[in-house]
Amino acid sequence: MIRGLVFALALLLAAPALAVQPDEVLADPALEARARDISRELRCLVCRNESIDESNADLARDMRLLVRERLLEGDRDDEVLAFIVERYGEYVLLRPTADGTNIVLWLAGPAMLIAGLGIAVVYLRRRRRAPEADHKALSDQEAARLREILRE
């Protein structure tokens, strides 16, 4: 029983390592290391939040092969990334750049947090300064009616 659990856990932990097939691995260890580094930065378009290095999808395999092909042609890492982004769009990057139109997305979160905190501060200050509500005591008739209701 425990052996089965250990084996299942080992398979789950090794699953990302099984994504790169033996026929994809480059003969040059330095080039292979570069290919793996680049592949970890690229999003699988099928699996969404998984890198192509971890994904078993056919498209991820095609992208891994494309990365290796570009490296064999002598491209630098940034040139390979630029080629992939040009081909598949900036969404393919797991860590998008913080320039151009993306700057709006990078700044929107902190700006909304600051705006929310500002609204909360203004609300709390106005609430503190507001006059307290005038609570009148119950009249004799209201008190009698309340006692009657509570007895029922």
From TrEMBL:
Has the keyword DNA-binding been applied to this entry? Answer: no
Cite the entry's keywords alphabetically. Answer: Heme, Iron, Membrane, Metal-binding, Signal, Transmembrane, Transmembrane helix
Question: Per the database record, which ranges form the CcmH/CycL/Ccl2/NrfF N-terminal domain?
Answer: 8-150
Q: Which residues cross the membrane?
A: 103-124
- What residue range is the signal peptide? 1-19
The UniProt entry, under Gene3D superfamilies, shows: Cytochrome C biogenesis protein
Show the PANTHER family listed in the entry. CYTOCHROME C-TYPE BIOGENESIS PROTEIN CCMH, CYTOCHROME C-TYPE BIOGENESIS PROTEIN CYCH
The role this protein plays is: Possible subunit of a heme lyase.
Q: Which family does it belong to?
A: Belongs to the CcmH/CycL/Ccl2/NrfF family.
Q: What is this protein called?
A: Cytochrome c-type biogenesis protein
Organism for this UniProt entry? Plastorhodobacter daqingensis
